[in-house]
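To whoever picks this up:

The nightly regression suite flagged Probable dual-specificity RNA methyltransferase RlmN as changed. Nothing in the input moved, so I suspect the structure step. Input below, exactly as stored in the fixture:
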Amino acid sequence: MAKEDLLSLTIEEIEAIVEKVGEKKYRGKQIFQWVQKGIKDFESMTNISNTLKQALHEYSFITNVEIEKKVISQIDGTRKYLFLLEDGNIIEGVLMQYKHGVTACISCQVGCQMGCSFCASTVGGLVRNLRAGEMIDQILLMQQDFGERISNIVIMGSGEPLHNYSEVINFLKIVNNENGLNIGNRHITLSTCGLVPEIKKLAELQIPINLAISLHAPSDEIRQKMMPIAKKYSLTDLINACAYYLKKNNRRITFEYALVKDINDKEIHAQQLSQLLKGLLCHVNLIPINMVDETQYKKSTQEKIKRFQSVLMKQGIEATIRREMGADIDAACGQLRNNYINNT
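Regenerated output under the current build:
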């Protein structure tokens, strides 16, 4: 029988394991608390018996991700991490300091198969999904390294969260638990490129997280050139799914819009975007695109970005320009990992 990763299990799932080996149910909560503190060996769990420790060895293991490399921005203190997984794969995480707290941006997959043409994460394709425990461990390691509690999470690193749906939902259940990291759903943002069926499934769960949609284009024609997923789901499909999500959750949706010079950054594009989003409870996050060696895309000028924002605001669409974090340390998704892999 395959061993189970305790860091990927909810309290209820660990309780089922301890009851299976003849122990009291409350031991599951104790074990959950230990692993959520970052304890990696059963011997350090001082309030459980040797008999139970032996059973845990037999039935389970604890994910053990390691920090392979860390780079700290000299501009704003942003920390970019390369994490080494137990199978030798490399993933990324980013820790950012804001006035409202410390935010961890985590990966949910090794690589990504979505193929967005402006993103470094997709170079090399998808290797595999991460377990919930491998996502949790990124937070535990960053928190331990930084020495302060992480208060906000964005699942916006390498990978498409809704393509790893079941493990991401498990992650949300675990990270939200008061006996663990206890990070509230309203402090968690999930970013998707627009998997329509999964957006609807997520809506049905009514988990009050923040949903961010990687939109990046005001028309199907432009979006299909930038994002292969747009050939499967049209903007009409996507906006209808977002409307359904709003109906079920009444939580404002953020639309991520990376501005690319002469591709999607003209005033006409801003006007089209305003019409597309009209009537939705939403916010647009305008992103100065990160330069990726593998693409020919160029960043819009600051003047153009501000003009684009102005058009949206005049049409009643709330829009902000994302502050660039860690620009001197390849802090954008996939950049540091690709550089590392290409040079080792």
